[in-house]
Amino acid sequence: MRQRVHIEGRQLEVSNLDKVLFPEVSFTKAQVIDYYVRIAPVLLPHVAHRPVTFTRWPNGVDGQAFFEKNNARHAPEWVRTVTVPSPGSSRGRETLDMVLLSAVPDLVWSANLAALEVHVPQWQVDDDGAAQLPDLLVLDLDPGPGTGVVECAAVAHRLRERLLADGLDPVVKTSGSKGLQVYAPISCADKDHPSRYAKGLAQALTGETPEDVVWRMEKALRPGKVLVDWSQNNTAKTTVAPYSLRARPLATVSTPLLWDEVDELRDGGDPEQVRFRTDDVLARVEEHGDLFDVSDRHRAALPG
Predict the structure, then answer these.
(1) What angle, 0 to 180 degrees and rounded to 10, lies between the N-to-C axes of helices 193-208 and 149-165?
(2) CA dihedral over 301, 302, 303, 304, signed as positive or negative
């Protein structure tokens, strides 16, 4: 069933609102749309100037999913789009036409496509749509077999100390899945600078505690260790946006944390305390505001 809705002066069509997209928790498309509308004030600043890669799950999280970078062809005329150079993974195209989610109707449109996850790069486009140098650093902490978010919290604490020592001002969030992600606002000299710096950090932590940390991707190296994935600083790659839903059975959300919460976890806290669903996240925003807001934080030049 299709119906027309009016939101902030835009008219759009939504459909199948009662379709269950997260069967384990009976979470419907209507609830997905409602969440993205309600979280928009804190989500939009983090994605509005970053070309979006959607992960779409038209038949719910138990069905087939697909990434979609060249997504502007689906967009209403009022959704802003940009043409950006194609990464190496997109064969046969020199450019991609990508969407910018910059207003609440844009989020409703994308949620109606069952674009459950929103992924963005660590760089923005300017008002003319030209790609800028990266303005964020990211280190994705992914627990290997036999480890979990508690071990990730220990590594996140160490990363924070190193970043602070280098003059950076880090923030942290859950991945919404198993791990944590540490970010810092930066300025840099060239687009590859963040990858070089992040790789150096990952190698340094591995060198200090090779029994706990790994910087290389090979699965055989990862049991019992936390991978410090530095590779998502590559300008062709994206990371799940803060406040994005994850296509996981419980409809969890990639959620900003206080550093005190990371330290509580590191000291033996309950991993369930950092597994947040939509209502939890909305309540946290009501209490804390946007813990991922880097707009007023010091944007340091990367060392090296």
Answers:
(1) 120
(2) negative
In CATH, what class is 2-120? alpha beta
Q: In the block, which residue shows the tokens 């813990």?
A: 291
Cβ-count burial of 30 within 10 angstroms (0-12 exposed, 13-18 middle, 19+ buried)?
middle
Identity of the amino acid at 148: G
| Length of the chain (residues) | 304
Number of H helices and E strands in the chain, helices first, is 6, 17
Question: pTM here?
Answer: 0.94
- Sequence spans of domains, the chain: 2-120, 136-275
At 153-188, the pLDDT tens digits run: 999 999 999 999 999 999 999 999 999 999 999 999
Helix (H, G, I), strand (E, B) or coil at 190: coil
Put residue 221 in one of left, alpha, beta given phi > 0 → left and psi -120 to 50 → alpha: alpha
Question: Do 249 and 178 touch, CB atoms closer than 8 A?
Answer: no
The overall average pLDDT reported for the chain is 93
User: Which CATH class for the 136-275 domain?
Assistant: alpha beta
- Angle (CA) 68-142-70 rounded to 5° is 10
Residue 256 has, within 13 A of its CA and on its CB side, a CA count of: 24
Q: How many CA atoms lie within 13 A of 39 on its CB side?
A: 30
Residue 217 pLDDT exceeds 70: yes
